[in-house]
Amino acid sequence: MVNSTFSTLDSAHTNETILIVEDSPTLALTYQAYLRNMGPAIEIAETGKIALQKIKDLQPVLIYLDLKLPDMDGITILRKLKAEGNAARVIVITAHGSIAVAVEAMREGATDFLLKPFNAERLTTITRTALELQHLSTLVEQYEEGYKGKQHGKFIGESAAMKAIYRMVKDAAPSRASVFIVGESGTGKELCAEAIHTASPRRDKNFMALNCAAIPENLMESEIFGHVKGAFTGASDDREGTAIRADGGTLFLDEICEMHIDLQAKLLRFIQTGQIIPVGTSTPIHVNVRFICATNRNPWEEVQAGRFREDLYYRLHVIPIHMPPLRDRGEDAIDIARSLLIEFAREEGKQFRDFSENAKTHLLAHHWPGNVRELGNVIQSAVVLNDGEYLTDDMIKKLLGAIHHDHLSSARFSSQNHSGPHSPHPDTRRSGQRENKPSIPSDIKPLAVSERKAIEEAIAACDGSVRKAAKYLDVNASTLYRKIKLWEKTAP
After folding, report:
1. Which CATH architecture has domain 2-147?
2. 64: which of 141, 163, 278, 301 is 20 to 30 A away, CA to CA?
């Protein structure tokens, strides 16, 4: 992959500059000749003063810096660049090489160390690598800057569904009322709770999260309310509960519907009185917390089934928020996936910076039953198992399973397979003139058939572009991709 990337490197850097800071004119011109076909312009500075001026004027992306200059030490220039936050990559050149000099240069911001003498191949290789790393670093910064406009706290996405969530978070944050967040696993319920806390007047106090499904039933009461020494076997010391640690802040009870019915009664009393009683004592302690709860179940169905107290439901279900599944968030899936890709690539030392177009199609077509959590798992696995500039559909297919959409535009929905934008569905062509008599009940088509016809005609009219058709049909592209996937699976 590195070699294929280098093949396009020269043209990608034609507007950039490499500065050679070398007091020997002969050596400087030799290095310049070695690098003349690399793409960037090559400038020379024979003194530190000239070098600093050219760095200011030309903003070079790469600097070759001799440590021994007639007017100043190269380390001095390194320190000045570091203090100014200059983003140029600096490769130190010296004939006085030693471990100590190399370490000091690296500490002051140098990215590599080149010992005289060296040949043309060594210089061009290290230059190509440095330019590519600089290029990738710039791309990462650009993507991160782009995400800032699409990020709301820790959330990423500009879909209509998420904009509604952002508004609810903003409206709910100043209140003391309890919030009840529902949604499928992996949709970001805890992120929503954190966002409410961060935007609230309680932001300077603790946000304490407690997963009711992860703590054994016999320890849950102690986990919330705390206990005193000797309250039960193993209670060797007094222990503050989560409620006390959240005093003045927010107590987030995740998977609240997993809480045992007996403990629900004690939680209800806590909500009503603002007091807790640690296990093993009868002395109440006043605690001021804002309650936020979450579940991946339907809480009212839990009430009707007798597993969740109705009075507790009404106490907690004051401000309901429903987190949308990833499949209903349209292009948000791509923005989230790209953010995860860059994060995991950085962690793993890989070169990935974006997805191929076919990979984006696969990401939008997948149903994502595990939502953002599943998406993160897939992207991380793909990054660990592969490398390259783009994450391709083949890399994703191995992890998503058999999702076949390679021929969406070229086969089933190619405009070449239709007589025009208003061609009838293949199943209706055989009906002949009956199409002119819609009043006959036998000629009425099932809704699914009519829907499919409308979608296929829209895609054909848009020259096979699913995304463009989705825009005109006023639906998410991911919705069309899922329907297409279903039709392919059920095709005879």
Report:
1. 3-Layer(aba) Sandwich (3.40)
2. 141
pLDDT at residue 27 greater than cutoff 60: yes
Q: Which of 463, 483, 467 is nearest to 420 (CA)?
A: 463
Q: Return the pLDDT at 199.
A: 93
Q: Which residue has the tokens 């206990």?
A: 227
Calculate the CA dihedral of residues 287, 289, 294, 299 and round it to 10 degrees. 70
The kind and range of the H/E element at 89 are: strand 89-94
How do 226-227 and 239-240 pair as beta strands? antiparallel
Q: What is the rounded distance in angstroms from the CA atom of residue 270 to the CA atom of residue 50?
A: 72
Q: For CATH 3.40.50.300, list the domain ranges present in the chain.
A: 155-324
pLDDT of residue 253: 97
Are the CB atoms for 65 and 88 separated by under 8 Å? no
Sequence-distant (≥ 6) Cβ neighbours of residue 292 within 8 angstroms: 178, 179, 180, 181, 193, 196, 197, 250, 251, 252, 253
pLDDT, residue 475, reads: 77
Which DSSP string corresponds to 278-305? -BT----EE---EEEEEESS-HHHHHHT
Cα–chain center distance at 25: 50
CB 64 within 8 A of CB 18: yes
Distance CA 129, CA 2 (A): 9
Torsion of Cα atoms, 128 then 131 then 136 then 138, to 10°: -170
Residues 56 and 378: their CA atoms lie apart, in Å, by 44
CATH fold of 327-400, please? Answer: Helicase, Ruva Protein; domain 3 (1.10.8)
Threshold 0.85, pTM exceeds: no
Q: Which fold has domain 155-324?
A: Rossmann fold (3.40.50)
CB contact at 8 A, 42 and 32: yes
Confidence at 14, pLDDT banded by 50, 70, 90:
low
Residue 207 has pLDDT above 50, yes or no: yes
Domain with CATH 1.10.8.60 in the chain: 327-400
**Statement: residue 214 has pLDDT above 60:** yes
pLDDT at 140: 60
Rounded alpha-carbon distances, angstroms, from residue 324 to 184, 332, 483: 8, 11, 19
- Give the DSSP H or E segment for 226: strand 226-227
